[in-house]
Known about the structure:
With about 280 residues, the protein is of the alpha/beta class. About 45% of the residues lie in helices and about 10% in strands. The longest helix is centred in the N-terminal third of the chain and has 25 residues, at about 5-25.
Amino acid sequence: MTNETKKMLSINAVKIRMGIIEGTYGAKAGHPGGSLSAADYFAYLYFKEMKNLDPKNPKAENRDRFVLSKGHCAPGLYSALALKGFFPYEDMPTLRHIDSYLQGHPNMNTVPGVDMSTGSLGQGISAAAGMAMGAKYLGKNDINVYTLLGDGEIEEGQVWEAMMFAAHYNLDNFCVAIDCNGLQIDGACDEVMSAEPIDEKLKAFGFEVAVIDGNDFDELEKAFDAFHGTTGKPFAIIMKTVKGKGVSYMENQVGWHGKAPNEEEYNIAMAELRAKLAEIEEA
Length: 283
């Protein structure tokens, strides 16, 4: 990856994080922690990985698809879509407001760029696997389907049915990412209901697997390159991340799973992110 590309991705990741804070502060509700941990993934996915995305034609048939299976992290997805140009970035503070098109979970009927409505955990990956199967069935072999789950979400049984389905039908156009930030709404994942060893389970279910630092663009690039080099099997990226990444007082704090910042906390977060953005831009 060139330094120019990495700088672009780093800038966009910070702007996505700023959008997450703007949205959850404006809503006085929402899920900042898991949105922030996945911001680098969203930046890489929407600004380097996915093909044929056109904000002027969000339903283009030849586009890659993305399904946010952990739908409560909609602030991260919305922020990436807004930054990509699907709708005004300035609308982020209307998140969850009455009459806003930016609902608390992704809605494909109201938000340009959203490929599937999600929210009930475990179900998004099933829809994504169906999309991948559909692309294969139609002979559209240039279309890839991506989905993002949380490590708490994979405690749902339906997730593993979808994994089994993807492997059985050799969906090598299907890339599953798991945001392993170690925390879910009730506490640490390994205390609530450990899913470990996640990599060995995925391999047993027929996946090719990469385990990476999900907040590192070089490692994301290597993982996606490995996905593109895999044939005959679906691919899974286990991303070790930091919940609340980028906002000092939110990092690794389970309390920020589903809580919005107040005015003082908003100001601190935005000051930190603006400083980070300036540092990257000046480098």
